Amino acid sequence: MKDLRGKTAFITGGASGMGLAMAEAFGREGMNVMLADIEADVALKKVEELRAKQIKAECVQVDVTSRDSLRNGALATIAKFGKVHLVANNAGIGAGGPFGGVPEGDWDWVIDVNLKGVVYGMEVFAPLIESHGEGGHFVNTASMAGHISPGGMEPYCATKFAVVAMSEGWQQQLAPKDIGVSVLCPGLVSTNIYAGRRNRQNTVYGEKGKDFGQDNLEQQRQWMAGGIDPLVVGQRVVEGVKDNDMYIFTHVEYEGVVRERFERVMAGFDKSKQSPALNTLPKDRRLDVPPGAR
Ligand SMILES: NC(=O)c1ccc[n+]([C@@H]2O[C@H](COP(=O)([O-])OP(=O)(O)OC[C@H]3O[C@@H](n4cnc5c(N)ncnc54)[C@H](O)[C@@H]3O)[C@@H](O)[C@H]2O)c1
Fold first, then answer.
1. How many CA atoms lie within 13 A of 22 on its CB side?
2. Is the CB of 157 under 6 A from ligand 1?
3. Phi-psi category of 8—alpha, beta or left, where left has phi over 0 and alpha has psi -120 to 50?
4. Which atom of ligand 1 is nearest to the CA of 94?
5. Is the Cβ atom of 69 under 6 angstroms away from ligand 1?
6. Mean pLDDT of 14-40
7. Most CB atoms closer than 10 Å: which of 16, 36, 102, 156?
């Protein structure tokens, strides 16, 4: 999407952090923005702040763990702005812990928000974008945790690796429909994600774990404050959307650790090439690498 002016962006998790920053960055490009967030009161305040900056903003309460909720959000956006062109599937929460110590319910919570929330956003909006024929773009927020996997972050990394993988596939499938797909992969950004547990649906995911990590919130807040300014991320996303980038990175200093991971993966191939077991396979057997993998 080269020309953003007058088009409409729907942003999940739009009331805070990177979602709000994307809304501001899209708004500065002349887009209408819909903040879709589970925190309706905060979203309303943020709409006022964006309007004070001459940005056409609206908000709608959405819980991305519900396909119906996203569908209602889409209908509300179409009622306000006519069409949706750009969707940022960005709402997300953090979950993790020592092996065996991830709180009960957190696996489901993080998968529902970070992974299935993105699936629902794609499946609800792609047909709507396709139907107006003006093209569009999805920005799915993953993380550097979608490329590297530090111990203790398995639930979060599982969802973020999945968002990277799904986005790579969707980019191939939606390109012929003039719909671009990018995956946003930031490192540390100064946002409110450290306090994400406030939005945990405890009635669904259980009471155990509802207070997990809440005892050192101030420490986490200070650590997050060392991250980069979300507005820079928003501006980088605008660049990435205009250039139809598959991967939108914001922390280039991670290049080395990602390369090292690939090298460890490649070393696994080198080792397997020496395998006596594999060397018993017929040399002329069919190769099953799917065409889309290249
Ligand atoms: N902050 C970082 O360092 C960082 C790094 C990499 C990736 N990310 C990812 O960026 C995205 C945005 O997070 P952030 O850092 O801006 O955090 P944030 O907490 O500031 O913003 C997240 C927003 O999502 C909303 N939200 C939570 N659950 C929701 C639900 N079920 N339905 C709808 N909205 C919901 C929250 O109310 C909040 O407004 C997340 O996907 C996160 O995983 C963050």
1. 34
2. no
3. beta
4. 43
5. no
6. 98
7. 36
| All structural domains of the chain with their residue ranges | 8-256
* Protein fold of 8-256: Rossmann fold (3.40.50)
Residues of the chain with pLDDT > 90: what percent? Answer: 93
Give the residue, by CA position, lying nearest to ligand 1 atom 30.
Answer: 63
| Cβ of 155 below 6 Å from ligand 1 | no
Tell me the pLDDT tens digit for each residue of 213-242: 888 999 999 999 999 999 999 999 999 999
Q: Counting every residue, how long is the chain?
A: 294
Q: Which residues contact 146 (CB under 8 A, 6 or more apart)?
A: 157, 160, 161, 162, 163, 164, 183, 185
Q: Is 196 in the pocket of ligand 1 (CB under 6 A)?
A: yes
The CA-based dihedral angle spanning residues 173, 246, 67, 15, taken in that order and rounded to the nearest 10 degrees: -160
29-60 confidence digits (pLDDT tens)? 999 999 999 999 999 999 999 999 999 999 99
Q: Is 217 helix (H, G, I), strand (E, B) or coil?
A: helix
**pTM attached to this predicted model:** 0.97
The preferred substitution site among 16, 60, 223 for testing ligand 1, maximizing ligand atoms within 8 Å of CB, is 16
